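Question (not urgent): is this output format expected?
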Amino acid sequence: MINIFKIVSFLEGISYILLLFIATPIKYLADNPTYVKWLGMPHGLLFMIYIVMAVMLKYELKWNTKEFIWVCLLSILPFGTFYVGRYLKKD
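Got this back:
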């Protein structure tokens, strides 16, 4: 399950970066919302999967509340999910 979470974490991070730094500027600078529509749904699904898997791993890995909150908060920061993947490699 940890390996799947690492993959989801990586994909969620990539989708967030693409949405934030590529699709959103294109939407507002070129007046073209197409890329936001294409990337928005996959990113939303990956985000939900990430959170659900984080809840499941909280109990499996016996994370304390502080660790769990950090894993969830890092999901909303650009590049944060890459740190989570690196953190899990140490365990």
